[in-house]
């Protein structure tokens, strides 16, 4: 199955107060067919709006241009005031590779957008991050130094000639920065102070750049310099983090405003904890935090696991519970309700039609299965039964992790519960994918077969769809088979009062394996690649036999504890 390349674009517009202007800009972006607007996050104090949208590269570049064109018409930088550093109506416009596209390809599209903005709108454009044409321009803060007010003088210097557009001052629109970068999380931590100086002290503690070293007094002392005359710096606690302190009047508090430029290096929960430690050492307290824009799902899931481990609680809980723990632990709902469907990028990208069966209630799923439609059928039901097997094993693991008197074993059961959750998620995905595989076969058979070219195309489509219809139930077999290890350990080592639940899980797992096997057997005969078909069938049959043995062993263990 082929998948289109996806790029995310997160332009920052220098207007956060006039909703009619913001609406006109986002309308221009949405006027491009295929683009999906994910988030619009205006800030009154910063007078800045962060917009997030996704699409194919060509769609995104067109939408970004239209948004920037509208911003240049409506925003007058001569009258702009706000807490956030800025240099243009569209201050910065990064492109981020999301799926099926490399960073190098994303750089190409960023430069294409920059050239069009410079040539068509007569706005000076600088390239940054991975799209930068020279090393000193990779850093956004370096390009933006002096902000809008410094542009008239800056543009007259040869070293500040823009990458695209005229080297002349555009009084209304200013200048803009376009680039390609990895996913960035804009994250603010709230402090129980109104002092910008104290918020900055925390920011300097945590950010990678740290603070300038001084002789004697850390604030007024003479700056220490190296042999080349450059200021010496005391590095901060966190890598891949930029931070400043500011006061937000609408909240009545100071914040540490951070850009987490690589959340694989410094996850959001580590940034939060570092701010907590610094604030406490300086006599302050972190009261909560906020996300500006969106965040990847895994970042919040890992935060939830981190805080559960601190409590010595099982991390093998549902996505919903992990997100709830992360939100409450970091106070992400202090300033406004935190809505996962709006703030998590995967949830915004995931449409209801992407997983119509899993989104249904139990009653709806049963009614849909019982209807005259041929799908969902046995394959989807087998995957769902497998998911229930994983869920039962996970339940026993979580009950055991929290059993009174078993405190020293919580980590053991937590690890097993996490594995069970992973298998449950896999099998739930396969519930809908099995139906998609069946529909792919139907679609292939409906293709025209008039000309020789059409016949060949139709034959290839049928074979590709048939192969897919073998691979999907085989994946169900594999995932369901893996639940036996979890279920056996839980029957042997878990809470003895729940051994029967592990046994029921084993019965479900065997049903899932054998149910999916029937779908494999149904489709292998229609595949021309007999070597592949026979190999898959033999492995599937062997797995089914092993499932029979494991089911009996687990049921026997459970009965021995009754």
- Give the beta-strand count: 15
Measured by DSSP, the beta-strand proportion falls in: 5-15%
Mean pLDDT: 94
The structural class is: alpha+beta
Can you tell me the overall shape? globular
List the helices and strands and how they pair.
Layout: E1 6-9, E2 12-13, H1 19-30, E3 36-43, E4 48-55, H2 57-74, E5 90-99, H3 103-121, E6 125-129, H4 140-144, H5 151-154, E7 176-180, E8 185-191, H6 196-206, E9 211-212, E10 214-215, E11 222-223, E12 233-234, E13 241-248, E14 253-260, H7 268-281, E15 286-292, H8 297-310, H9 319-330, H10 340-343, H11 345-349, H12 362-370, H13 378-401, H14 410-445, H15 452-493, H16 499-524, H17 530-560
Parallel strand pairs: 5-7, 6-7
Antiparallel strand pairs: 1-4, 1-5, 2-4, 2-5, 3-4, 8-14, 8-15, 9-12, 10-11, 13-14
């Amino acid at each position: 199955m082929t998948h289109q390349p996806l790029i995310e674009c997160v332009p920052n517009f220098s207007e956060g107060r006039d909703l009619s202007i913001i609406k006109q800009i986002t309308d221009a972006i949405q006027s491009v067919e295929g683009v999906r607007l994910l988030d619009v996050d205006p800030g009154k104090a910063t007078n800045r709006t962060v917009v997030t949208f996704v699409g194919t590269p060509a769609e995104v570049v067109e939408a970004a241009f239209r948004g920037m064109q509208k911003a240049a018409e409506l925003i007058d930088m001569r009258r702009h005031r706000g807490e956030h550093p800025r240099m243009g109506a569209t201050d910065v416009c990064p492109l981020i590779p999301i799926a099926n596209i490399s960073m190098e390809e994303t750089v190409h599209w960023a430069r294409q957008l920059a050239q069009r903005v410079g040539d068509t709108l007569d706005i000076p454009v600088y390239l940054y991050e991975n799209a930068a044409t020279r090393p000193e321009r990779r850093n956004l803060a370096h390009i933006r130094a002096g902000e809008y007010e410094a542009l008239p003088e800056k543009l007259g210097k040869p070293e500040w000639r823009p990458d695209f557009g005229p080297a002349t001052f555009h009084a209304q629109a200013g200048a803009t920065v376009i680039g390609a970068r990895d996913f960035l999380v804009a994250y603010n931590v709230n402090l129980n102070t109104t002092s910008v100086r104290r918020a900055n002290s925390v920011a300097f503690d945590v950010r990678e750049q740290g603070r300038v070293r001084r002789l004697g007094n850390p604030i007024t002392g003479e700056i220490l310099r190296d042999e080349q005359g450059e200021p010496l710096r005391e590095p901060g606690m966190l890598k891949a983090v930029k931070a400043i302190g500011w006061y937000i009047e609408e909240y009545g508090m100071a914040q540490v405003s951070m850009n987490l430029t690589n959340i694989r290096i410094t996850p959001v929960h580590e940034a939060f904890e570092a701010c907590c430690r610094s604030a406490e050492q300086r006599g302050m307290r972190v009261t909560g935090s906020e996300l500006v824009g969106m965040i990847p799902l895994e970042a919040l899931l890992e935060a939830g696991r981190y805080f559960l481990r601190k409590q010595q609680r099982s991390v093998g809980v549902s996505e919903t519970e992990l997100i709830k723990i992360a939100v409450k632990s970091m106070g992400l709902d202090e300033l406004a309700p935190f809505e996962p469907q709006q703030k998590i990028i995967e949830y915004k990208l995931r449409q209801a039609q992407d997983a119509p069966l899993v989104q249904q209630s139990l009653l709806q799923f049963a009614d849909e299965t019982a209807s005259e439609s041929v799908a969902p059928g046995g394959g989807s039901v087998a995957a769902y039964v497998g998911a229930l097997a994983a869920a039962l094993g996970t339940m026993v693991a979580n009950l055991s992790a929290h059993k009174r008197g078993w405190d020293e074993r919580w980590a053991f059961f937590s690890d097993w519960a996490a594995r069970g959750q992973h298998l449950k998620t896999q099998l739930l995905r396969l519930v809908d994918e099995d139906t998609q595989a069946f529909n792919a076969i139907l679609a292939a058979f409906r293709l025209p077969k008039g000309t020789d070219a059409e016949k060949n195309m139709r034959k290839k489509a049928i074979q590709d769809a048939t192969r897919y219809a073998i691979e999907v139930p085989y994946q169900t077999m594999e995932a369901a088979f893996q639940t036996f290890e979890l279920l056996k350990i839980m029957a042997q080592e878990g809470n003895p009062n729940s051994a029967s639940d592990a046994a029921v899980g084993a019965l479900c797992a065997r049903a899932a394996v054998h149910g999916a096997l029937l779908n494999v057997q149904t489709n292998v005969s229609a595949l021309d690649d007999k070597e592949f078909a026979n190999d898959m069938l033999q492995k599937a049959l062997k797995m089914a036999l092993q499932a029979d043995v494991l089911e009996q062993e687990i049921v026997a263990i459970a009965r021995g504890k009754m």
